[in-house]
Amino acid sequence: MNRRSPTPPRPGEPAVRFVDVTHRYGRHRALDGMSLELEQGQTVALLGPNGAGKSTTIGLLLGLLEAQAGTVEVLGTSPRQAVAAGRVGAMLQTGAGSGLPPGVRVDATLRLVRRLYRRPAPFDVTVERSGIGRLLDRQTQRLSGGQAQSVRFALAIAGDPDLVFLDEPTAAMDVAGQRAFWEMIRHFSREGRTVVFATHHLQEADETADRVVVLNHGRVTADGPGAVLKAAVQAHRVRFWCPRPPVGVLDGLEGVTDVAVRGQRVDLASLDADATVRDLVHRRIEFSSLEVTGAALEDAFVALTSRHHERGESA
Ligand SMILES: Nc1ncnc2c1ncn2[C@@H]1O[C@H](COP(=O)(O)OP(=O)(O)OP(=O)(O)O)[C@@H](O)[C@H]1O
C-alpha cells in the first residue's frame, strides 16, 4: 500500500459533510437544504433521477460551485483547500468525446497531469491502480469508451487522493467494461480511500456501493446500504392464483401495502411476506402457484422518490 498523502486523514473525520446546503441556479433550487455526512473508506453511490442534484453535489464538493447557504466540508476543510492539497480527485461527465486531449500518448498525458501535483503518486503506482499498463503507448483518440474511462481514472488519482468523486463513470461502457472498472475501484477503495459516485443505475449502486444515498429534488430521500433501502419499502411481492379473489379481504391481510388483481392473478406488496402467507392460510383463502420475491432496488427507488414527490407537491 502506498500512502503519501501530505495531510493524512484523521481517523473519524468525515470525508464529506453537508449541513443544510442550498444551491440555486437563478431561481431554480437544485439543492434544497441538503444534509449528509460520509465516512472515510466507504464507497458511496449518489443515486437519483435526472435533475435530482447529483452533479451539483459533486460540483460543490470540488469547490467548482459555491453554496448559497449551508456548510460544505471535505476531509475537515473547505473543498477548495482539500482539492488544492491534492487530497481529492475527480472524474466528471465529459459530454461528447473522451475528455482527453487528442493526439497525445496516454503515458505523456499522465506525466503531464502528475506535474500538476506537489506529491503525486509514483507513475507506476497510478498505472497499476488504474490498470492502464497496456494503454501507455496509445494515442488518446484511439481508446475505446471503457479504456478512455480507465485513463481518466488514472488522471483523477494521479495526485494520490484520499477521496475520489466520479460522475456517472460507466455511462459510456459496455457490461464487460463496467465490470472491470468496478473491480479496479474496489482495489482502490480497499486501500482505505473514499469513493463517491453518481449514477442512475440502480443495480450498479446496489452492487458496488457500501452505502446508497438517494437524491430527489435536491434532498436526500433515502440513505443506507442497498439491502436496507430495499427492506425499507415494499419488501416483497407475493403472487398467487385464486379462483375468486376476495378483493376486500386482500387489503386487510397482514403486512399488505398494495393489492393488484387481474382476473385470477393476485399480486400483493407486503412488508412481511411470512405474515401475509400465514394470514392467507388462516383466512382459508384458496390459492395456488404461490410466489414470493424480494423487491428490486428499482421498486425501492420508485417508491422512495415518488413519496418525496408527493410531499413536495403538498408542501
Ligand atoms: N448550469 C445550470 N443552470 C441552470 N440550471 C441547472 C444548471 N445545472 C443544473 N441545473 C438544474 O439543477 C437541477 C439539478 O441538476 P444536476 O445536474 O445537479 O442533477 P443530476 O442529478 O446530476 O442530473 P443528471 O443525472 O441528469 O446529470 C436540474 O433541475 C438541472 O436542470
Please write out the topology.
Blueprint: E1 16-25, E2 28-38, E3 43-47, H1 54-61, E4 69-74, H2 79-84, E5 88-91, H3 106-114, H4 123-130, H5 145-156, E6 163-167, H6 175-190, E7 194-199, H7 202-208, E8 211-216, E9 219-224, H8 226-232, E10 236-241, H9 247-250, E11 256-262, E12 265-270, H10 273-282, E13 288-294, H11 297-314
Parallel strand pairs: 3-7, 3-8, 5-6, 6-7
Antiparallel strand pairs: 1-2, 1-4, 8-9, 10-12, 10-13, 11-12
Helix pairs in contact: 4-5, 8-11
The chain binds adenosine-5'-triphosphate.
What would you say about this model in short?
With 315 residues, this protein is an alpha/beta fold.
Task: Write up what this structure looks like.
This protein is α/β, with parallel strands linked by helices. The chain folds into 2 domains: 212 residues, P-loop containing nucleotide triphosphate hydrolases (Rossmann fold, 3-Layer(aba) Sandwich); 61 residues, YebC, transcriptional regulation domain (Alpha-Beta Plaits, 2-Layer Sandwich), CATH 3.30.70. Helix 4 packs across helix 5 and helix 8 crosses helix 11. The strands form 3 sheets. The protein has a 6-stranded mixed sheet with strand order 5-6-7-3-8-9, sandwiched between helices. It has a 4-stranded antiparallel sheet with strand order 11-12-10-13, covered by helices on one side. A 3-stranded antiparallel sheet has the order 2-1-4. Helix 6 links the parallel strand 6 and strand 7. It is built from 11 helices and 13 strands.
